[in-house]
Structures are given as structure tokens and as C-alpha cells.
Amino acid sequence: MAIGVLALQGSFNEHITALNKLGVKGVEIRKPEQLEHVRALIIPGGESTTMAKLAEYHNLFPALRSFVKSGKPVWGTCAGLIFLADRAVGQKQGGQELVGGLDCLVHRNFFGSQIQSFETELSVPTLADKEGGPPNFRGIFIRAPAILEAGPSVEVLADYPVPSKQVIKTASESKTEEEQNNSGEKVIVAVKQGNLLATAFHPELTADTRWHSFFMNMVDGPVDQGSSDQTIAYITKQLPVFQ
Question: 0.85 exceeded by the pTM?
């Protein structure tokens, strides 16, 4: 079986390319019945409200929730993280439907608008321990969310320091949320909970495939091979986006 990549909108092609670099076949998922033929699923980054509307139009939410509950691995990046969260704030008026399963509270646009997107070095000791390579990872944050709260069963894989003023300003949707984040020291940007993996940044936009390899190690049994004959384990220098 192959690895599915939800292909409604966003960076699904980049995820499939990254899987191919690891010798794994990635297939585009647009209909509920297609989920029956994949061993794991990646929900890519994109515009979360648009993705949610398209998922609702194609009646994908029940099938996505069943897939999560089945125990098969699911990885959400950026908008995919929002999809997997049990709770979300900072949404557009009327909110959006969530798949759920990940015991966390996510802020939809914590880091601001598109022009406030940025890149930074993240400390990723667990990733380095499991997949090798340097102890840091180049995180690409594009209109990115952040996890404000994580339940006791959630393993934090990466966090990011945020000035106190930014946390209070962007967490202004509710008094309770502001009080919970008034220390302003860090927000969570990568987690694992059972069969679920989530990153607020975009590993698929770099040449470093360690997050994809980490995810593949969550998958039981063999998967179909991709078309590439080259595997990239990690990079040791900064590379431009989309390389």
C-alpha cells in the first residue's frame, strides 16, 4: 500500500516529492473511498479554511475522522496541524470544521499574516536521535499556527521562543487563553501523540527529509516504492525554499 496525501489544496505535490526521495509511493487523496487503499496519510499545509470547505464539499470529514481513529499514522503540517487539533482559536468568523484527535489547543494564525512568514533554526533532539543528522532543523513558517496547550499524552518534539508581547497580542481571542500564555516564553511547533504527528512548519519545502523518514517509521509493514532511486537523509547547510 502507498502513503496518501490529501490533495484538496496546498503543498501536496511537495510532500509526494519528498516521499519519492525516500523511495516511497505517495498518492493523491480527494475522495473518501481512496483512504481505504493507503497505509498512512499526510494532511499538507495550505489555506485551512479553503481546505475545510473542500473537505466538507467532498464529504471527507467522516472518513478522515475514521482514519484517525483507526490508528493508522496521520501527519498534519501547518494547516494539517489545525485539522488534527481538538480545539482551535483565531479562526475566521464562523470557524471551520476540524478532524480532531490531537489533544491540543492551536492558534490558527499565531505567527501573523503571509508577509510575516519566516524561517528559523529549530532544536529537534528527538528527530536527530531517531533519524540522525544535525540537532537542528530549518523550520519554514508560512502564515503558521502554533500549539498553545498540549495534553499529557502529547510528546513535544519542537518549540519556538516568542516574545511576551507577541504571545499576549496574538492570543487575544479569549481572556483565558491570554492568561495561559502570559509568560510568553515558548510555543509548541511539533508534536507526536500515538499515531498522530503534527508540525506547524513545512518540512516538505526543504531538502531535509528527516521528518518524512520519522513519519515513515510510524507506519507498520511495507509500503509501495516510489519512482526515485535517491534518498536524502538530511542536509548540513541552508537551502532555498522549494529546492
Answer: no
Q: Residue 95's Cα: distance from chain center in Å?
A: 19
Predicted pLDDT at 92: 66
pLDDT band (50, 70, 90) for residue 116 = confident
List 137's β-bridge partners, or say none: 122
Collect all residues with Cβ–Cβ distance below 8 Å to 14 and sequence separation of at least 6.
44, 202, 204, 205, 242
Of 14, 15, 204, 212, catalytic: 204
CA–centroid distance for 159 within its chain: 14
Mean pLDDT, range 117-127, rounded to an integer: 95
81: helix, strand or coil: helix
Q: Which residues of 170-189 are buried (b: 16+ CB within 10 A; e: fewer)?
A: bbeeeeebeeebeebeebbb
Q: Is 212 a catalytic residue?
A: no
Q: Are 214 and 130 in contact (CB under 8 A)?
A: yes
Helix-, strand-, coil-residue percentages of the chain, each rounded to 5:
30, 30, 40
Among residues 78, 107, 131, 212, which one is catalytic? 78
Burial class (CB within 10 angstroms; exposed 0-12, middle 13-18, buried 19+) of 123: middle
Can you list the alpha helix ranges (DSSP code H) found in 5-99?
A: 12-21, 48-57, 61-69, 79-84
Q: Is 204 a catalytic residue?
A: yes
Closest CA to 215 of 125, 127, 100: 127
